[in-house]
Amino acid sequence: MPAKDLFEYAVLRVVPRVEREEFLNVGVIVYCRAQGFLQTRFALPEARLRAFSAELDLDDLAARLHAFERICQGRAAGGPIGQLGIAERFRWLTATRSTVVQTSPVHPGLCTSAAETLAHLHAQLVE
C-alpha cells in the first residue's frame, strides 16, 4: 500500500458583493509539504458568473486568479510573495480577505498524489 501524505486545500470563491456573503466556487488550491506541491486550478464559467452577478469584470477576475497561479509557481513573476517558501505562499494565499476572490477555510486530508487530488477536488467542488 503506498504511503499517504498530509495535504491541505482551500476552495477559491468569487464573492461579487462581500456584504451579501454569496459566492461561487471557481477553483481549488492544494498544498502538500511532503511532495513539495503547491498548485491551483480554476475555471471561469462566464455564463454562470454573469447570471450570478452582471457587474463582474471577468478580465479583472481572471487576472486575480492568474496571480494565484504565479504565486504558487514561486518565481519572480509571483512578486515578493512568490519568493517566499512554499508553506508561507500557501498561508498567504489562504489568508482571510474581503475581496472579490476569497478562499474557504483550509481543510486537511491524506493523498498519494497531490496532483491527482487537485484534479479530483476541482471536479468535485468546482465543475
From TrEMBL:
Pfam families: DUF3037
InterPro entries recorded: DUF3037
Domain of life: Bacteria
Name used for this protein in its record: DUF3037 domain-containing protein
Organism from which the protein derives: Hymenobacter nivis
Lineage, opening ranks: Bacteria, Pseudomonadati, Bacteroidota, Cytophagia, Cytophagales
